[in-house]
Design brief:
- This protein is of the alpha/beta class.
- It is built from 8 helices and 5 strands.
- The strands form 2 sheets. A 3-stranded parallel β-sheet has the order 3-4-5, with helices on both faces.
- α5 links the parallel β3 and β4.
- The longest helix is centred in the last third of the chain and has 15 residues.
- The radius of gyration is 17 Å and the shape is globular.
């Protein structure tokens, strides 16, 4: 997607933030793709580095396959950063299509991804505010009693 975006002359910049070995994929970036990509790839990735990257981003691409959840999604919502996710259970439950981000199909065709990126970019302020509201409603410490009160009642 980075190379395709560069090839088409879109002005998008990317960050790859991971502690995983990514040399093979970085090696596949074209010079134009590499020039518009910031790589954060320490041996140990701190919460602060993740939060900083999320806060600096217009959107987060969380396009995992075959996972049941991702901690990146609530962290992005906490920062008010819209999220693009693959249409997979566990990834879509906190992303309100068109409000806090975009849900893209399983095949991840470049046209669909670039259209989703443009939709987020065109509605980023509203999506950012909605993302933060979803975080506060579902993950913030203020909703603890609603999420876990039943457990305290059960344990009596």
């Amino acid at each position: 997607m980075i190379n395709e975006s560069a090839r088409r002359g879109f002005g998008y910049e990317f960050q790859i933030v991971t502690a995983s070995e990514i040399g093979r994929w970085v090696g596949e970036l074209t010079p134009d793709g590499r020039a518009r990509t910031r790589i954060v790839n320490p041996a140990v990735l701190s919460d602060e580095a993740i939060a900083r990257a999320l806060k600096e981003s217009v959107a987060v691409l969380c396009l995992h396959a075959n996972v049941t959840q991702s901690g990146v999604i609530p962290m992005a919502l906490m920062q008010g950063t819209p999220v693009m996710v693959r249409d997979e259970a566990g990834l879509t439950q906190h992303v309100l299509e068109g409000e806090t981000g975009k849900v893209v199909g399983g095949e991840l065709e470049p046209e669909e991804l670039l259209a989703a990126m443009a939709a987020v970019e065109g509605n980023q302020p509203a999506m950012s505010a909605a993302a933060r509201r979803v975080y506060e409603a579902e993950f913030d410490a203020g909703c603890w009693a609603g999420q876990y009160g039943w457990l305290i009642d059960l344990l009596g």
